[in-house]
Amino acid sequence: RADRSPHVELIITDRAVNLVEEGIDCAVRGVEIPPDSDLVARKLSSVHWLTCASPDYLEANGTPVTIDELASHECVRFVSPSPGRARDWLFLENGQSRTLEPEGRLRLTSLNGAVEAAVAGCGVAQVPDAVACQALRNGELEAVLTAHIAPAPSLMLVYPGNRYLTAKVRAFGEVFADVFPLDGWWSVISREQRTIA
Fold first, then answer.
1. Which of 156, 152, 32 is nearest to 92 (CA)?
2. What is the pLDDT of residue 6?
3. pTM (2 decimals)?
4. Where are the alpha helices (DSSP H) in the chain?
5. Would you tell me how many other CB atoms lie within 10 Å of the CB of residue 93?
6. Cα dihedral across residues 32, 37, 38, 42: positive or negative
7. Which of 104, 65, 73, 69 is nearest to 87 (CA)?
8. Residue ranges of the chain with pLDDT lower than 50?
9. 79 DSSP 8-state letter
10. Using an 8 Å Cβ cutoff, are 64 and 71 in contact?
């Protein structure tokens, strides 16, 4: 007899998937959802772009204290699989958004890979706080240029709007809502660091 017990099939990819065409119930995405999209979106958590590097890298190369100083650093770039180009880095400076196209010999199509490369001392990386939070908590990475942290697209639970919200999708969303802080991981880590200090 076929096993009909409940199960979850989890696909982890940086590729933008078509939920309807690929038969996927829901997805967790850190991208802006266009207003005319046929997807229903529920915010799970705020996200911030964190610029970070390993303590060993910073000890050997110095800690950048201004955005312009990144020009003298090796920067690990994330290449978005969909457009196929390296993502520009985003900062807030004097209340305004500022983008930067940093120099770097290492480019990866995985945000987790960018974190691992930064932990390994390959350079400075800019990644979402949700991806870097564990390495920051472990002391494997240090956040730099924290006065210039910019918001990233919120983490959203999305599902096709032409489908009924099933109990399993609702339960999946509740699990993620319990795991991710609504105001973002950087806010949590900052509070933890202030408490320790």
1. 152
2. 60
3. 0.82
4. 55-61, 111-119, 129-137, 167-179, 185-196
5. 13
6. positive
7. 104
8. 1
9. B
10. no
Q: Report the distance separating Cα 48 and Cα 92, nearest Å.
A: 11
- Helix 129-137 to helix 185-196 angle (10° resolution) is 20
Rg, the chain, Cα only: 18
What is the reported pLDDT for 1? Answer: 42
Q: Give the separation between CA 183 and CA 95, rounded to whole angstroms.
A: 19
Angle at 62 between CA 115 and CA 122, to 5 degrees: 30
User: In this structure, what token pair is assigned to residue 26?
Assistant: 């829901």
Paired with 158 in beta bridges are: 27, 41
Tens digit of each residue's pLDDT (9 = 90 or more) over 139-167: 999 999 999 999 998 888 888 876 667 78
Integer Cα distance of 22 and 3 in angstroms = 23
Backbone torsions φ then ψ of 108, nearest 5 degrees: -130, 150
- How far apart are the C-alpha atoms of 36 and 41, rounded to whole Å? 12
Phi, psi of 70 (to 5 degrees): -65, -20
Reference 172, options 7, 61, 22, 12; nearest CA is 7
